[in-house]
Specification:
The chain is of the alpha/beta class and about 850 residues long. It has six domains: about 90 residues; about 160 residues, von Willebrand factor, type A domain (Rossmann fold, 3-Layer(aba) Sandwich), CATH 3.40.50.410; about 100 residues, Immunoglobulins (Immunoglobulin-like, Sandwich); about 200 residues, Class I glutamine amidotransferase (GATase) domain (Rossmann fold, 3-Layer(aba) Sandwich); about 170 residues, Rossmann fold, CATH 3.40.50; about 70 residues, Immunoglobulins (Immunoglobulin-like, Sandwich). It is about 30% helix and about 30% strand.
């Protein structure tokens, strides 16, 4: 029994009509027993009606197609992507596409997330791209019930035979529409990229050569663009010109900043648009820079060392006061851990034991001084003190720097709007705010016809972030009137409790003549310990008055026509005028070498220091540098071996507070590079990369690996794993053929990308990756497109090569849709029987008893 119309209205009307009819008839004409009998009769009728399997059936135009896409190695990537771009234009409301990648085998149907060719091939390399089974892919597609197959392939098969499926396809009315790039249909490729090579491993922060080979087999000269891409970054672009029969090798350089396994892709695009592009890929493993963990008390402490270490071959991870375990990575991930002027209360509770264990097991650990380190930081009696080469003494810092109060009096008159001068003034003020210490004070006053307090005098520890924001309130307007602003600045500087007080006045024009008032005001300020410097931005006015003010104020006069230099002028002036760069106003400690055989640095002369933390060397410690004053000498740089690692103590700071002369010293970078280098674990026990070479070849389906280790003194068994294109990771059993040489064989391999990871003892070798190309397994590149087979498939199935969207829709067979009614009818019969039983056993009996009563 078949109903030939769509069901959405018919079956609902049918059910509703039946229910209403039963209800009306039973209520109007039948007594209760008859009603029940009618319900039973109707239920039996419905069950009988369900036996033949009634259903609705109708047809609708097919609006779905499966895109069967060849991801094997023989298919040119540029030709494939060109064909897919044409296919993507078909997709829409009237034609829904799903993608089925295939190579030696098809992917799980509809389990794809890419419709770009590169992403699809990368995602489905597990399909064995070294072989092509077109028959298996088409058979998989027709299992989905589709009547339309769009085929994106070069038509070359290494397994099965698509021709054998043609009778079945024709019988089932399944049409195949091959889509191809006409450039591949003309002939085999005669201008192409034939080879791409590079070392498997690149040393940290160094480039290696990438060599691309291009051959021209045409009888006329050809040109093309070669692009080399390393880790997503284009490292070379070059137009290559080739004579007939010429083969050219182009050498590029890898990106030295890339770490880990990174793809290198060469793309050669001929100038002639009729010729397809060619693409090849390999992998380079950049040795990872050694990781150093630096834990600092404040951002100010971290500024110099962070720049130094990042400029070296180290990869610095900097954390500020990570006092919870969640804010701290695992120490074993690092070669060196630096405690940079940080107190014990700024670290997690378990950190002291972890640090000692890290050093004892072969890591490098150091403590750098400051007002929160050693005894001052609460480390006396901790596991960290046990690991260090010095004993700590009760807190006594040799700190002599006095805090500073700086007032910036800045011209913001209308003339400052020219040449973007006000922007550079803001930048300079911001630089001063960032460079002053936490216990210093800052004030910014803008002046035009009257003073404008931009930042009220305050301590940097409390207002630094808000002060930088408020600097942006400076805007040019009005005329120049300096004197009221100077009075305002004097008032705040006089009140502030700072060791040194300094005013900087900046203007771009002649200040109004105020007679002796400037001179008198500056004399008063000098009496209050306030120094004054002046800055002239420009060269068009007489500067004598500003020079005189600076001379009387005990500061300096600066003149520049380059507004961008203001930041440096301000910072340098503050350092000089407040005594940070003078020798007479600060107590200084000389630094000298101690007579030791084992030493960290070859530097022989060092600048003086303004402070350090007192410690005592342990009996087995090597004390390389001492701080001296009169007949007293204390350790500055001490180190020793602790367990399998090395620990070091530097008792002054590295943030410029006590080491201001060191921060401007030309050997500052070299010194700290030597210090960190001395803490690095040595070969055999640390993280220095083992030098090795891995060679491989395929012989009768077996991958043969030949590993040569060049680094001496490597101790331990070789353990290796190989990740295959299918995604599974297997252990590789090497045997030692000779000292430093290991051999292994891996059966059951396919084409695709492999990742090799290995350890000797506990020491990892740099992970590497390599590609086994499809030509090792039967695929051949450069043959163009097998148009004979693709046209045969299209003609015999009723499809079209390179169809329009309309041609796909017109040729598509209508899709027959069935909607079965049996289960619905049986459910309705069951409901009627159930109602009949309920009415008979409860309601009907109840009413009879009611009447009899």
């Amino acid at each position: 029994m078949i109903f030939s119309h769509p069901p959405y209205m018919n079956y609902s009307i049918f059910i509703a009509a039946a229910a209403i009819l039963v209800f009306i008839v039973s209520r109007l004409y039948l007594k209760t027993p008859a009603r029940l009998a009618l319900m039973r009769l109707l239920a039996v009728f419905l069950l009988a009606l369900a036996l033949p399997g009634p259903h609705f059936e109708w047809s609708q135009p097919s609006s779905e197609a499966v895109v069967v896409t060849d991801v094997s190695d023989s298919f040119s990537e540029s030709l494939a992507e060109s064909a897919l771009s044409r296919v993507r234009a078909y997709d829409g409301e009237d034609l829904k596409l799903s993608y089925l990648p295939f190579a030696a085998k098809p992917a799980p149907f509809n389990d794809t997330s890419h419709n770009d060719y590169e992403g699809m091939k990368r995602a489905w390399s597990s399909l064995n791209v070294g072989e092509t089974n077109l028959e298996g892919a088409i058979y998989k597609a027709i299992q989905s019930g589709t009547k339309n197959i769009i085929l994106v392939s070069d038509g070359w098969e290494t397994r099965g035979s698509a021709e054998q499926l043609l009778p079945t396809l024709k019988q089932r009315g399944i049409k195949i529409f091959p889509v191809v790039d006409e450039r591949g249909a003309k002939s085999q490729t005669l201008l192409e990229l034939t080879r791409l090579t590079a070392p498997m491993v690149a040393p940290a922060e160094k480039s290696v050569d990438i060599r691309a080979t291009i051959r021209n087999d045409y009888e006329r000269p050809q040109n093309g663009l070669l692009e080399l891409v390393h880790g997503g970054k284009v490292v070379q672009k070059k137009i290559v010109k080739l004579d007939p029969g010429q083969e050219s090798v182009i050498v590029g350089k890898s990106d030295p900043s890339k770490e880990g396994i990174q793809e290198v892709k060469a793309i050669f695009t001929p100038v002639d648009p009729q010729l397809p592009a060619s693409v090849k890929s390999i992998f380079i493993s950049g040795e990872r820079r050694e990781k150093i963990l630096m834990l600092s008390g404040t951002e100010e402490d971290a500024r110099y060392l962070g720049d130094i270490l990042n400029a070296q071959k180290f990869r610095i991870e900097s954390r500020i006061a990570p006092n919870t375990q969640s804010g701290l990575p695992k120490l074993e991930e690092f070669s060196v851990v630096l405690l940079n002027n940080i107190g014990i209360n700024q670290l997690p509770p378990s950190f002291a034991r972890d640090f000692e264990s890290f050093v004892k097991n072969g890591g490098g650990g150091a403590m750098i001084g400051g007002n929160r380190s050693f005894g001052l930081g609460g480390f006396i009696g901790t596991a960290i003190e046990r690991a260090l080469p010095v004993d700590m003494v009760p807190p006594q810092a040799q700190q002599k720097r006095l805090n500073v109060a700086v007032s910036l009096v800045l011209d913001k008159s209308r003339s400052m709007s020219a040449d973007n001068k006000i922007f550079y003034v803001k930048e300079a003020a911001g630089a001063v705010i960032r460079n002053l210490k936490d216990d210093d004070f800052i004030e910014v006053i803008g002046f035009d016809s009257s003073p404008f307090i931009v930042i009220k005098m305050g301590q940097l520890a409390e207002i630094r972030s808000s002060a930088i924001d408020r600097v942006n309130r400076l805007f040019p307007a009005g005329r120049t009137n300096l004197l009221p602003a100077m009075y305002e600045s004097k008032r705040s500087l006089t009140k502030v409790d700072a060791g040194r007080k300094h005013m900087i006045i900046l203007t771009d024009g002649k200040v109004p003549n105020a007679g002796p008032y400037y001179s008198e005001l500056i004399k008063q300020m000098r009496g209050d310990g306030i120094t004054v410097s002046t800055v002239m931005l420009g060269s068009e006015t007489d500067t004598q008055q500003l020079e005189d003010m600076a001379q009387e104020g005990g500061g300096a006069f600066h003149q520049t026509t380059n507004a961008a230099s203001l930041a440096k002028i301000f910072i340098d002036d503050i350092r000089v005028s407040t005594g940070e760069r003078t020798l007479k106003e600060n107590f200084e400690y000389n630094v000298r070498r101690a007579p030791v055989e084992d030493k960290i640095t070859d530097i022989s002369a060092f600048p003086p220091l303004r402070g350090y933390v007192q410690t005592k060397p342990k009996s087995k410690a090597n004390v390389e540098l001492l701080v001296t004053q009169a007949d007293k000498a204390d350790p500055l740089l001490a180190f020793w071996t602790y367990g399998a690692g090395r620990a070091l103590a530097f008792t002054s700071d590295a943030n410029g507070r006590w080491s201001s002369f060191w921060a401007s010293w030309e050997r500052f970078y070299s010194f700290w590079s030597d210090v960190v280098e001395s803490l690095r674990p040595k070969v055999g026990g640390g993280t220095e990369a083992i030098k090795f070479d891995l060679r491989y070849k395929v012989d009768k389906g077996i991958l043969k690996l030949d590993l040569a280790v060049f680094t001496p003194d490597t101790v331990g068994a070789l353990v290796a794993t190989l990740k295959k294109p299918q995604g599974d990771e297997i252990e590789v059993s090497f045997y030692q053929d000779s000292p430093g040489r290991y051999l292994a064989e891996v059966p059951d391999i396919i084409a695709g990308q492999y990742e090799f990871r290995s350890f000797i003892g506990k020491k990892p070798l740099t992970p590497i990756s390599f590609i086994l190309p499809g030509d090792l397994f039967g695929e051949k590149q450069g043959r163009g497109t097998n148009m004979q087979l693709l046209e045969q498939i299209a003609v015999q199935t009723g499809g079209v090569v390179n169809p329009s969207k309309q041609e796909i829709l017109v040729k598509a067979e209508p899709k027959r849709i069935k909607f079965k009614l049996s289960s619905l009818i049986i459910a309705l019969a069951s409901i009627l029987l159930l109602l009949e039983i309920i009415m008979r056993e409860s309601g009907f009996v109840f009413r009879r008893r009611a009447r009899s009563g």
